[in-house]
Amino acid sequence: MGKTLAKAIPAFQQVKDHVLQKIHNGTWKPGDLIPSERELMQQFGLSRMTVNRALRELTDNQMLVRTQGSGTYVAEGKHQSTLVEIRSIDDEVVARGHRYRSQVLALEVSKTPAALSALEFKTDSVFHSSIVHFADDIPIQLEDRYTNPTLFPEYLEQDFHHVTPNHYMMQVAPMHRAEYSLESKMPDATVRKRLQMEIGEPCLVLSRRTWVRDAVATSVTLWHPGSRFRFTGGL
């Protein structure tokens, strides 16, 4: 049975899984030089093209950094966000020298009890949006947001490919206070697919509510791949 399973896994994926395991269990730390393509070819009995594909995909996902003439290293940098000042994700991405874009997955009316409860809303519906944010075509955040329609009546009419919800809401009704929690969670299959994550990789999940005067303005859950994102802060 073991041999059958091994054959079912693409050869390049076996190399990727091996490298990711070494990184996640701490054997290879940020900045460490990993084995060369030739060494991995010999270890797995694979062609240079197959090994190269595995390392190239891990580099594209910012797990590795390849330096010509030097070798391949475990990546040190992750996309960052500050917990002290609430900034729009597009500003964070551009400030770090990357190209930003977004994919709007949902923009709709929601009547779910959880949404109404989160916004402490008394009527029968609120607004809901789901958006993936990218840095250089690599997904770094899945934003799932419920918004108060009384404060933002034109929310569903916005083009969130060109302006983020945060930018729009700060222009219409700037927040007065916020509360948030941060935790590490395993994503379900849908979140993992949206963020193009490896199986077994955890997410950093920021849950945040903001107020405009005494009304809850928005309740948002932000999912970030643990290998590509970190939060920073200070006072």
From TrEMBL:
UniProt keywords, alphabetically: DNA-binding, Transcription, Transcription regulation
Gene Ontology molecular function, alphabetical: DNA binding; DNA-binding transcription factor activity
UniProt-listed SMART domains: HTH_GNTR, UTRA
PROSITE patterns to which the protein is assigned, alphabetical: HTH_GNTR
Domain HTH gntR-type span(s) in chain numbering: 9-77
NCBIfam families, per the entry: his_ut_repres
Name used for this protein in its record: Histidine utilization repressor
UniProt source species: Glaciimonas soli
Gene: hutC
